[in-house]
């Protein structure tokens, strides 16, 4: 196992504290000479320990093993949703956090540190607690969904609020780690070890479908997850477990769409958003730090980035909830909205996997409409039930 710079390709010995190439500043990938992506005994993502870094103590809350649910409300016949909301803290972040926090322990850190739009903070705080570490979280003030903020607080995180968006919060983390190393371990998705944990989603999907799907549609914020999932599918293909590679499609919210805008305009670099705006607060990110990794995933796989509107996201969230029984947060409905937008372009018989990254309870602030009746007495309630029953 080695670290390789994603820009200049220089290689380094594994070092838990190395996140940028000393030569050119590029982010680092974990490269394996040989990787075995098949499961064995073990808890959570550590079932795939043969494809993960060796650690002294495997931290886990039983992450992964999430349901792959076949949908019936789509035009395409074979659409599956990977429900990452079923992870221990309610999002896909747990897969990566199990690995990153185990590495933090090995590295001798006393606390973990993360900037977050919310889910990373919830996951980091919980896994740090599990490992006996403290957690320090940097959040954009007033812009984090209620459920996520509650989780971080419940698990005992110390919270630093900054003005602006997630991008300013991440800047604070990056600046801190330039100045001080050894005490506090950063677990944002520039941390290559975290991405190793997140690649296990691909292993599970291929294991359940019997091969890689044709398309994988992923919501994109900081662009780590789409890169990690692509890496997982490449591992499987290289190991001869699957016969093909999927096409990766990244979906962003229109108001925070640096990568989709780049794709639409045929640019070579993201069209940075200084003031990202979307109701999908999880992906309200204007400067995705993993953009190069994600661009490579999309290019290598023959995919693309697309943007969907907030209205389309809310519509998709409602359809998943009311026609499929699946409750996801807004960012996690973006792939369904993306599929609706792309449906004419994807072959009828394609196998498509939507990655639904987080649970509906994360963000109870999103307004939904339904009929609520008031019943002062038991008789009123019975009468109302009869009325409603006769109409359904
Ligand atoms: C539900 O929690 O960035 O493209 O700080 O919470 O890998 O960043 C969350 C991201 C998609 C985007 N869906 O994943 C954070 C954070 C949900 C998310 C994403 C996030 P990346």
If you had to describe this structure to a student in words, what would you say it looks like?
- With 392 residues, the protein is of the alpha/beta class.
- α1 (93-106) crosses α2, α2 (119-131) runs parallel beside α3 and α5 crosses α7 (224-238).
- It starts with a strand and ends with a helix.
- The longest helix has 15 residues, at 224-238.
- It has 12 helices and 13 strands.
- It has a 6-stranded mixed beta sheet with strand order 4-5-13-10-11-12, sandwiched between helices. It has a 4-stranded parallel beta sheet with strand order 8-7-6-9. Strands 2-1-3 form a 3-stranded antiparallel beta sheet.
- Ligand AN7 binds next to α2, α7 and α11.
- Summarize the biggest pleated sheet: 6 strands, mixed
The CATH architecture name of the domain at 68-91 and 194-362 reads: 3-Layer(aba) Sandwich
Percentage beta strand: 15-25%
Q: Using the coordinates above, name the CATH class of the domain at 68-91 and 194-362.
A: Alpha Beta
Mean pLDDT: 97
Distance between the termini: 60 Å
Q: Name the ligand types.
A: ligand AN7
Number of strands: 13
- H/I helix tally: 12
And the CATH topology of the domain at 68-91 and 194-362?
A: Rossmann fold
> In order across it, which strands form the biggest sheet?
4-5-13-10-11-12
Query: How would you sum up the global shape?
Result: globular
Helix-strand topology string: EEEEEHEHEHEHEHHEHEHHEHHEH
Give unreliable regions as ranges: none
Please give the radius of gyration in angstroms.
21 Å
- Helix content class: 25-40%
Give the helix/strand class.
alpha/beta
